[in-house]
Amino acid sequence: MAADLVVKGGKLVTPEGIIEAGIAIKDGKIMNIAKETGLPEAQRLIRVDGRLVMPGVIDAHSHIHDPDYTYREDFESGSKAAAAGGVTMLIDMPLVLTVLSDMIERKKEEGERLSVVDFSFHAGMMRPEYIGEIPKVVALGVKSFKLFTTQPFKVGWKGVKEIVQAVTKSQGITVVHAEDDSIVSEWVKKVRDEEGRKDVLAHFDSRPAEAEGEAIRRLIHISEETGGHIHIAHMTTTVGTVLVRDAKERGISITAETCPQYLVFTRDDAEKQGPYLKMTPPLRTRDDVISLWRGLADGTIDMVVTDHAPGTREEKEVGWEDIWKAWGGIPGVETLLPIMLSEGVNKGRITPMRLVEAMCRRPAEVFGLYPRKGALKEGSDGDLVIVDMKREVTIRAENLHYKVGWTPYEGMKVVGFPEITVIRGEVVAEGGAILKKPGYGKFVEMT
Ligand code: ZN
Ligand code: ZN
Fold first, then answer.
1. Which of 223, 161, 18, 99 is nearest to 10 (CA)?
2. Ligand that comes closest to the CA of residue 309
3. How far apart are CA 238 and CA 271, in angstroms?
4. C-alpha 125 – ligand 2 centre gap (Å)
5. Which residues pair with 417 in a beta bridge?
6. Mind spelling out the 3-state secondary structure of 315-355?
7. In angstroms, what is the span from residue 121 Cα to ligand 1's centroid?
C-alpha cells in the first residue's frame, strides 16, 4: 500500500529516543516509522539529509483575537504565522468576559473557515456564575477552563475553588492566570496612584514576583483539597518554580507553562523596548530566567507556550508617554520554535528530547490531545516539523506573518530554524511560504 508522504534520511525525535529512520504518512496518519528499506512507496518523497524531524509544535496558549479584535490578529494571519514557525496546532485562549459555549461555537466557525493549522480552545473567562455552562462546553469537545485571580477578570479565592470543583467533576482542567489580586492592587496603588509614575518600568514595578508566588501557593492548596488538576499559565518566577517543584514531589495535580519572552528578556530589555515589552505578568530578573530554564530542564515546567497576544504599534506607542495606556501583550507564535531551538537546544540548556516533550508531548497530554497529537508514533496524526539545527537566521518582522508587523525579537540572531511544516501528511509551510488555503485547519476535540 503506497503512502501519501514519506520523509527519509532524518533524525526522528520519537517518544523512545532519537533514531535515524524514515516516516510514512497515509490518510493523514503516521502509518510507519522504519529504516529506509522498510518504507513503502509514496506519492511524495522528501529527503532531509540528517535534519531533525520532530512532531508538530502545539502552542497551548495563544490569543488569536478572532472574532472580537481581528485588527490585531485573526485565524488566517495567526495560523499562517504558526505554520511558518513549525506550530501545527494552536489552543486559542479568550481575552473577553463572555458566555462560554456560544463563544466556542463562533470561534470554531471562524477557525474552520480561516485556519491553516489545527486548533482547539480554552473556554473562559470563567466566573462562578458560568459554572452551569461547563457540561455544555465539554459536550463541544473543550475541557480546559481559564480563570484569572486578578483584574480585569478577577475571581475571588472562594470562587476559584468552586470552579475547580465543578471543572473536575466534568473531567476538565482549570488554567489559571496566577497573580494574587490583593498584592497586585496594593502595589498598583502605590506605584501608579501614590507615586504617580507613568514611566515604562512602572507596570513592571507594580507587579512583584510575590504576587505570583502567593497565588500559586493558594492554587496548590486548592488542588490538594479538591484533587482537581490546575495548570499555571505563563509562570515567570523563581518562587513559582520552587513551589510547583515541591507540589509535584508531593503528588499534587499541578502543571505549569512558561513562555520564551520570560526565558530571554529581563527588566533591562523592558527599559529599552518600553511598551513593546509590556505584558502581564511582567518580565522578571536574571535570577528568575535561570530558575525557569532549570525548571524547564528538570520537568517542573511542563511546557513552553507563547501567550501570543499582539497589539498594534499604535496600541504600544502610547505607552512611551503613559505605560498604563499601552496594550499588554506581544506576538510570539512564529518565533516560538526558533527561539527554543537556539536559546534552549543549541545553547545546551535543554536536550532535543526535552524540547519535544515541552513543546509537543506535554501540551498534548495535559490538554487531552495525546496520542493523536504530540508524538511521532504509528497511528498519530502526521504532523511534523523538519528542522535545520545549523541554520542561522536574523529575526525580522518583515519576514513574519503577523498582522501587527512587529516583533520584540527584531534583529535577534537565532541558530536552528524550522524549514518544512507538515500537518496530517500535507506540507503546509515550506521556507516561510504557506502552501495550504485557509480552512485546511481542523478543530480537534479534547478527550
Ligand atoms: Zn494571563
Ligand atoms: Zn494569555
1. 18
2. 2
3. 21
4. 11
5. 388
6. HHHHHHCCHHHCCCCCCCCCCHHHHHHHHHHCCCCCCHHHH
7. 15
Distance 421 CA to ligand 2 centre (A): 25
Closest CA to 121 of 82, 90, 153, 86: 90
Q: What's the distance, Cα to Cα, between the start and end of the chain in Å?
A: 31
d(C-alpha 313, C-alpha 146), whole Å = 28
Mean residue pLDDT across the chain: 97
Which among 285, 390, 364, 327 has a CA at the least distance from the CA of 87? 364
Ligand 1 centroid to residue 104 C-alpha, Å: 19
Q: Please tell me the distance between residue 196's alpha carbon and the centre of ligand 2 in angstroms.
A: 28
**Cα separation, 186 vs 150, whole angstroms:** 12
Q: How far away, in angstroms, is 252 Cα from ligand 2 center? A: 24
In angstroms, what is the span from residue 365 Cα to ligand 1's centroid?
21
Report whether 321 contacts 378 (CB < 8 A): no
Ligand nearest to the CA of 94: 2
Domains and CATH numbers, the chain: 3-53+379-434 (2.30.40.10), 67-366 (3.20.20.140)
Q: Measured in angstroms, how far is the CA atom of residue 177 from the centroid of ligand 1?
A: 5
138 CA distance to ligand 1 centroid (A)?
Answer: 22
Give φ, ψ of 34 to 5 degrees: -160, 165
62 CA → ligand 1 middle, Å: 10
CA count, 13 A, side-chain hemisphere, 427:
18
In tens, the pLDDT along 134-165 reads 999 999 999 999 999 999 999 999 999 999 99
- Reported as a single tens digit per residue, the pLDDT across 431-441 is 999 999 999 99
44 is written with which cell numbers? 511524495
Longest dimension (CA), the chain: 73
Q: Which residues pair with 430 in a beta bridge?
A: 420, 433
State pLDDT tens for residues 92-118: 998 887 768 888 999 999 999 999 999
What CA–CA distance (Å, rounded) separates 292 from 285?
11
The rounded distance, in Å, linking the Cα atoms of 385 and 421 is 5
How far is Cα 348 from Cα 447, in angstroms, rounded to an integer? 35
